[in-house]
Amino acid sequence: MKRPMKIDLKWIRNRILVWYRKNKRDLPWRRNRDPYQVWISEIMLQQTRVAAVIPYYERFLERFPDVDALARAPEQTLLAAWAGLGYYSRARNLQKAARKIQELGGFPRDYSALLGLPGIGDYTAAAIASIAFDLPHAVIDGNVRRVLSRFTGERGNVDSLAVRNRIREVAGQILHRKRAGEFNQALMELGATVCLPKQPQCQLCPVARDCVARQLGIQNELPAKSVRTSPERVDKELLVIERAGKILIWQRPGEQRRLAGFWELPEPGQLPGAKLSGPVGQFLHTIVNTNFNCQVFRATLTIVPQGFRWLKKDQIDDLPLSTTAKKALACLVTPRL
């Protein structure tokens, strides 16, 4: 860390809050402080872009408006509502936590109790505690880490534990303890809209005057991170087999680590008797550090092996269909060759 926090913290806090109130985006989860809705939004926003989350968030709350509705939902219905957001353990943990909240008799109102819920770690517990209940816990996500590493001139690797602990200490010092929820959201918003990963908009920053990285002209070099490995490329073929308005699908086993319980289109290796009748399209799909080049073919099949199911086309939205399966079926409407 370049220097101790010997700045006017009151000035910094007020500048950030005033900026936030004038410039914050109108996002649906910011319209109230209901802990259930804050919780759902924070879980959805993990590893997922804001623009992608908004329609899912609104549909999810329509289908599961409260803890009780979420707790009693059939898993297949829950996964269907989550399909496309990825990281499906998040949805399963939401339901486990909803059932635990029922056992507790209400939503936990303190940080330690929130940490006891399935799927909730330091970040999410701090977010709910501060935003819903205004408890003084600093929220540190990737945006906040970037803002504070630049603001303090932190040159260390932000992926290291030592640097993360230093940034956590700064976050605790700078936190507005009486308006913790609003201040946490303000710092995250600053990172999301101004202190961008590439080409930060320093001229728009409310605290540019005290930013060490800007003073040294190294804002584009921070935060320092580990070098990422190149993504792996995998070729994949998917078959669309139709019969009497139905499509052949199969379900992943419940014990699988990835996409457990989700439904997929078959691949040629699963159906050696299938006869390909022509390409429909192709698309790219990325999962973590793997890029899948998916080619879609129409096919016919005389005998259907055990373990497969015919799905009516009008029931596609009722089951948790994988994103690759959805993209493949979209090729039937808009061929991509």
- The name of the CATH architecture of the largest domain is Orthogonal Bundle
Summed up, the helix count is 13
- The helix fraction, in percent, is 40-55%
Q: CATH fold name of the largest domain, please?
A: Endonuclease III, domain 1
Shape verdict: globular
Overall pLDDT metric: 94
How many domains, as an integer?
2
Rg, please?
24 Å
Distance between the termini: 52 Å
* Biggest sheet record: 4 strands, antiparallel
CATH class of the largest domain: Mainly Alpha
Q: Any low-confidence stretches, pLDDT <50, length ≥5? A: none
Overall number of strands: 7
> CATH homologous superfamily of the largest domain - what is it?
Hypothetical protein, domain 2
Along the chain, the helix and strand elements come as HHHHHHHHHHHHEEEEEEEH
Judged by helices, strands and strand pairing, the structural class is: alpha+beta
Portion in strands: 5-15%
Topology record:
Layout: H1 9-23, H2 35-45, H3 50-63, H4 67-72, H5 75-82, H6 89-104, H7 111-115, H8 122-133, H9 142-152, H10 161-174, H11 180-193, H12 212-216, E1 232-240, E2 242-243, E3 246-251, E4 263-264, E5 275-287, E6 290-300, E7 308-312, H13 323-333
Parallel strand pairs: 1-6
Antiparallel strand pairs: 2-3, 3-4, 3-7, 5-6
Helix pairs in contact: 1-11, 2-3, 2-8, 8-11, 9-10, 9-11
Can you offer a commentary on this structure?
This protein is of the alpha+beta class and 337 residues long. The chain has helices at 9-23, 35-45, 50-63, 67-72, 75-82, 89-104, 111-115, 122-133, 142-152, 161-174, 180-193, 212-216, 323-333; strands at 232-240, 242-243, 246-251, 263-264, 275-287, 290-300, 308-312. It has two domains: 9-216, Endonuclease III, domain 1 (Orthogonal Bundle), CATH 1.10.340; 232-333, Nucleoside Triphosphate Pyrophosphohydrolase. It is built from 13 helices and seven strands. Strand 2 and strand 3 (246-251) form a beta hairpin. The longest helix has 16 residues, at 89-104.
